[in-house]
Amino acid sequence: MSRAASRKRGNPKDTKRRGKKKISILSSEKIEYVDYKDVDLLKRFMSDRAKIKSRRVNGNDVQQQRVIARAIKNAREMGLLPYTNRVTTQRRSRDRGDGPRRPREDERPTEETEVPEGVEVEAAEAAPPVENIESVETAEGVE
Length: 143
Description:
It is elongated and about 105 Å long. It is mostly helical. The mean pLDDT is 78. Helices cover 27% and strands 0% of the residues. It has helices spanning 3-8, 12-15, 25-28, 39-43, 55-58, 62-77. It has a domain at 33-88: CATH 4.10.640.10.
């Protein structure tokens, strides 16, 4: 089998044309030496969470990425760059109209069920009667 035949058999995703290669900041601005004290330059190679961006994102070649990573690590050690940044995002608050509303206690349905005619229902066992009650309290007062 020739090489040309094996290429045609590949997955269609593999044969698609890839996007244009990103050009490195170092080569576009003709920077020959990366100094760990040049914080503004180093921040361009870091994410908003202070992570070092990958080569694919930056467009650096292997050697440039190694130099950038070493300079960022040195700047972190010297306290010029943070190890991490805390990024605060606004969480989406729940709107009052979203989803079913849970009924309040006074709105909840009671568990009274209707009994069909002709069916006898036994009453639940009541508390034993209290004896020796000298006075009975009512809403109006003591009788």
